[in-house]
Task: inverse folding
């Protein structure tokens, strides 16, 4: 995956007497994005996590830690949880984890590269009741998709999405732009609709992870981005009411400045239980092997006020390459 | 009347939150609104909810009842509650 954190936001006030609140007022996170493993069957050019075959962390959660963590998520009534990776479907206990969450009425999204979405797995996902499966389709053609997704196969991913539809599993599509696929964005939205997706997500590709080494191949020009977002604005209107086309137009710096003032009620959980503030920052605010989720949530509230975060964001303004080392974690 | 399939409710000190997980929108609720949603979760009908809130909030002049009815209409309009 490679995108800005797309987090739950307080979008509207539904109450008859609106109440002002922020993440500080909440008793628990609203959204937990869990990277269940760093192992992946693919080795994508842009992968923010540098996932790939043999790339599982040595200290990833064991079985007891996996289900202990999930139980805490359920106990705190966190309304929304996602499994990503790496590729979450290669985790040996993937379906047990899905069952654990869905059986407790959790709303679960799976973020996958789509290569394990055979008919049987899709049927199980439907029966277990996942909220949605988000598939990364970074191209509307075999040529661009396969160029980006090393070891990946466009036809398998497309077939996987079709299997989801046949199994009646809600579908979301994620698209990471590069200089060699930006021209396909219109066709990609059309394809997502044709495949039966209800949502389409994109943003700007981040300079981190594998993208640091492949930036010269990946980075769209600003002119390309202008055209990219122009097409997306058109697609929003074209598909209004039929497909939700959602994108982050602002760059990383603007996004982080916004987050400094408005932290989302979102925790990023790494495969080894470390908890990050946001994907695009190196800061760690907790360790689930040593702390409870509740304790970490309390730390999270204060962590965003740590001056090192504002300093990092300020420095990013003059040195965009600071995101190249997001895996050198900074413990708050 | 019930919460829509992809809507989750959680109580908070200030009232509550409704999370519509398909659009990833969060709605914050004041205590009155949270009481309405709690009653919907418990399976109460619209008339029961209005009666219950009038009693719970000691508000015989009908202000809470009107507020609750308007809020329920708002929830339905936004697809957060379905019949």
Result:
């Amino acid at each position: 995956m490679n995108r800005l954190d797309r987090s739950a936001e307080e979008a509207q006030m539904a109450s008859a007497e609106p109440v002002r609140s922020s993440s500080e007022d909440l008793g628990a996170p609203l959204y937990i994005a869990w990277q269940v493993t760093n192992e992946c069957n693919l080795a994508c050019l842009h992968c923010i996590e540098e996932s790939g075959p043999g790339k599982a962390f040595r200290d990833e959660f064991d079985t007891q830690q996996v289900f202990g963590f999930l139980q805490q998520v359920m106990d705190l009534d966190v309304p929304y949880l996602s499994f990503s990776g790496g590729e979450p479907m290669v985790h040996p206990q993937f379906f047990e984890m899905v069952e654990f969450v869905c059986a407790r009425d959790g709303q679960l999204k799976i973020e996958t590269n789509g290569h394990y979405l055979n008919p049987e797995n899709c049927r199980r996902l439907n029966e277990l009741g996942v909220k949605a499966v988000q598939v990364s389709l970074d191209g509307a053609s075999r040529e661009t998709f396969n160029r980006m997704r090393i070891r990946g196969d466009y036809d398998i991913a497309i077939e996987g999405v079709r299997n989801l539809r046949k199994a009646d599993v809600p579908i979301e599509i994620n698209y990471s732009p590069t200089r060699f696929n930006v021209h396909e964005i219109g066709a990609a939205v059309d394809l997502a609709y044709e495949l039966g997706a209800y949502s389409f997500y994109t943003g700007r590709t981040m300079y981190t992870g594998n993208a640091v080494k492949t930036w010269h191949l990946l980075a769209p020009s600003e002119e390309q981005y202008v055209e990219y977002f122009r097409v997306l604005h058109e697609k929003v209107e074209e598909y209004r009411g039929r497909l939700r086309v959602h994108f982050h137009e602002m760059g990383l710096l603007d996004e982080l400045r916004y987050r400094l003032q408005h932290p989302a009620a979102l925790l990023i959980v790494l495969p080894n239980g470390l908890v990050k503030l946001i994907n695009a920052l190196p800061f760690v605010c907790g360790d689930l092997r040593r702390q409870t989720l509740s304790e970490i949530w309390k730390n999270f509230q204060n962590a965003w006020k740590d001056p090192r975060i504002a300093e990092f964001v300020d420095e990013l303004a003059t040195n965009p390459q600071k995101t190249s080392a997001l895996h050198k974690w900074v413990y708050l | 009347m019930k919460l829509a399939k992809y809507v989750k409710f959680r109580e908070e000190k200030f009232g509550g939150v409704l999370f519509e997980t398909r659009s990833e929108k969060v709605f914050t609720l004041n205590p009155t609104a949270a009481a309405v949603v709690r009653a919907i979760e418990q399976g109460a009908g619209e008339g029961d909810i209005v009666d219950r809130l009038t009693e719970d909030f000691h508000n015989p002049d009908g202000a809470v009842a009107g507020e609750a009815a308007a809020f329920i209409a708002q929830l339905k309009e936004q697809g957060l509650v379905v019949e």
Residues 2-82 of chain B form a domain with the Arc Repressor Mutant, subunit A fold (CATH 1.10.10).
